UniProtKB/TrEMBL annotation:
Name of protein: 3-oxoacyl-ACP reductase
Recorded family membership: Belongs to the short-chain dehydrogenases/reductases (SDR) family.
InterPro entries, alphabetized: KR_dom, NAD(P)-bd_dom_sf, Sc_DH/Rdtase_CS, SDR, SDR_fam
Database matches in PANTHER family: 3-OXOACYL-(ACYL-CARRIER-PROTEIN) REDUCTASE, 3-OXOACYL-[ACYL-CARRIER-PROTEIN] REDUCTASE FABG
One GO BP: monocarboxylic acid metabolic process
Keywords: NADP, Oxidoreductase
GO molecular function, one term: oxidoreductase activity
Pfam family, one: adh_short_C2
Domain of life: Bacteria
All residue ranges annotated as the Ketoreductase domain in the record: 4-182
Amino acid sequence: MSSRVAIVTGAARGLGSATAVRLAQDGLAVAVLDLDEASAKATVDAVAGVGGSAVAVGADVSDPAAVEAAVARVTEELGAPTVLVNNAGITRDNLLFKMSESDWDAVLGVHLRGSFLMTKAVQKHMVAAGWGRIVNLSSTSALGNRGQANYSTAKAGLQGFTKTLAIELGRFGVTANCIAPGFIASDMTRATAERIGQDWEAYVAQRAAAIPVARAGEPEDIANAVSFFVDERAGFVSGQVLYVAGGPRA
Ligand code: NAP
């Protein structure tokens, strides 16, 4: 119970999984939260592999009862969580004129409602501890992206959410920051390549050609940025949006 406890949502794979491992390497105990508890097992094993401790927690971040139960379980099994990484996300891309109401609601439900519910449930532990770190996953899509009216709206919304959290919670020793990744190789971007009928390797090469550092991002690139914001020494950095995109894009 001596180490700090982090909850990483959507941590069964991709950026969330890499972040869970990174935070464990930093000495935190990690709750690996995802829709399906069984799918979080691989990340729990990866954390154990680097000598860390983790628990798998199944919860839909857009369901208030599931969120409350998940945070209560983490508190009981690992200790009070004082680090929260709102990473769970989905895409339901389509051009505006073809976008269904359910695809709009689903994307805003996971990213915005989910981050709101998780933060509301965890912040009480941060306030009680007089210390906390909140990191929200935005995206370069917040700047606008064809076919992503729902997703870009959610990701821009998370930036406003983050800045307000920084203002409201700062006096309790809590910082809130946002990371806006560019193109990162993950299941989410693989699904995009599939949807537009492009071979994965060709898609990565094409995307990398437009990135100043001339490569696709890796989940660890994002995990390292999360690690910075969570660090004890980052206590005077709050309300910021860090574009981690291999170039400016802001
Ligand atoms: P990913 O590979 O699709 O992983 C997302 C994870 O979130 C999945 O395990 C998914 O579970 C889980 N999830 C979805 N809905 C959930 C819910 N309601 N409650 C709990 N967990 C849920 O995505 P990623 O590429 O790692 O992206 C992680 C975050 O970074 C997302 O917020 C994404 O928008 C953001 N991002 C990614 C990129 C990129 O290039 N990859 C760029 C910018 C921003 P299931 O598998 O069961 O659905």
